[in-house]
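Follow-up to my earlier ticket, as requested here are the two runs.
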Amino acid sequence: MTRKLSETHFALIFFTLTLCISVYGIIEMQSIYHQSYTIYVSKLSEMPSHYFVLENPDAYVLKAMSSQDYVNIGSPEDTQIDDLIRAKETSYLEYNGTYYAAGFLFENKSLPAVPFFLISVGAVVSASSIVIIASSKTATQIRNG
């Protein structure tokens, strides 16, 4: 016996798909637009006039020293280089006899309002529609049977 999909089933499938796409969109946007904390360390060819001695750098600072490139960090709490630079009032440091210039960047990438709003509305409408359709179908089955 072949079973035909009713309009209710089509609507339920459509709204479920819309809900899944909306949730995926929200997760994807939050992974793109987030706070970014970056440190950089570059080797100097000459000894600076003011510097501080860095005795025990953390893994992120060591990575920046070895790569001479920007290193993205999840949170400022993961490294102390920014606190040291502020406390010593200089961005020059010495480690194992080599001199470096160090710094940090903090960028707050906020979510764009319109796409986030539309995706959120899509998720709310889809979830509400699924609940309404399922409730009405359940109520119809109870009345009929």
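Run two:
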Amino acid sequence: MLASIALLIALIAYRVVVPSQDKLHARKVSAALLQCQQRIAGLAEYGDAETPPYTKNYGTKGEFYFAWQRGSFHFKNVYGAPEKMSASCIGDLETGEIKQLTINAKTIL
């Protein structure tokens, strides 16, 4: 009885310490999304940029691909008025490197 309790505790501890492949993948996707959101918001020329909202990953296997349709976030224009924005961010999920970045259909990377 004591041995089975110890085994159960060891299995639970192992599951907590060693995350599953699904959890590791989800962490990489979350980190890539945050990186894309921050990079996009940092490109606003006139400040007061909205950070693009959460969007799902459309990438496959080792790629991330996030897309925001026009109007899902705004940047201030030269006159201080909000301007509707769109964006996409594609990269390598393993390295976290952004390979392609577009804002309002203009390629940045």
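The only thing I checked on run two: The longest helix spans residues 21-41. Let me know what else you need.
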